[in-house]
Amino acid sequence: xxxxxxxxxxxxxxxxxxxxxxxxxxxxxxxxxxxxxxxxxxxxxxxxxxxxxxxxxxxxxxxxxxxxxxxxxxxxxxxxxxxxxxxxxxxxxxxxxxxxxxxxxxxxxxxxxxxxxxxxxxxxxxxxxxxxxxxxxxxxxxxxxxxxxxxxxxxxxxxxxxxxxxxxxxxxxxxxxxxxxxxxxxxxxxxxxxxxxxxxxxxxxxxxxxxxxxxxxxxxxxxxxxxxxxxxxxxxxxxxxxxxxxxxxxxxxxxxxxxxxxxxxxxxxxxxxxxxxxxxxxxxxxxxxxxxxxxxxxx
Length: 299
Hints:
By secondary structure, this protein is α+β, with helices and mostly antiparallel strands.
């Protein structure tokens, strides 16, 4: 090979190598440029979602606020009356002498697991007139007190519901005839008198039921009379008048037992909200048997 030929071959090799060196240089430059980009991306990734120096974690203040919110408990208005009077002493001797003249000492206290929430007493009278027949009277007073409870509501609200239920039960006694009802004024916060006739094998009974609510206490007074063994039936109007008067006396006994109208009376200021939402110990209205129903069966 001549010298000229060798020189041209060397020049071709040199020109062929220049593109390869240029490509290697470009790759080196691209890789070197990629390093800062990767470092920047890593730095951004390590700080993403923080928004502050806490790294996205809740601060102690946030935890305290959540805890305080979770521990907050609802409150309800405190019940006005905290106890009940002795059921067999809610009526005076004079009143008993008029309603059950031959049974003033026949008082029978009803069973109760908590007399501060549920109490009752009954009396019966039989005036035997020999061949002229006899007069029978039966009187019963029931008292039910409700505690305020965060789940069930205030004592007043529960008493209102139970009051309405008692009135409805008195109006819907099986076998009752000539049923009439009317509001009674001057007896607690609200009161209703229900009267009806009930025929039994012993005779025709004149039933009077007065349901009264005073704040968180419901008083149910049942009074019935009958003329037996041929004696004439008592006057329903007279029985109704006596029942209303006795119910008013029983309601007054509730206020008296709690001392001057109770802790929430106007004289002492409104009752303060209860501090806790403790479970109520008061009886449920749905679990209490209607006094008027018992009166009907007792007659």
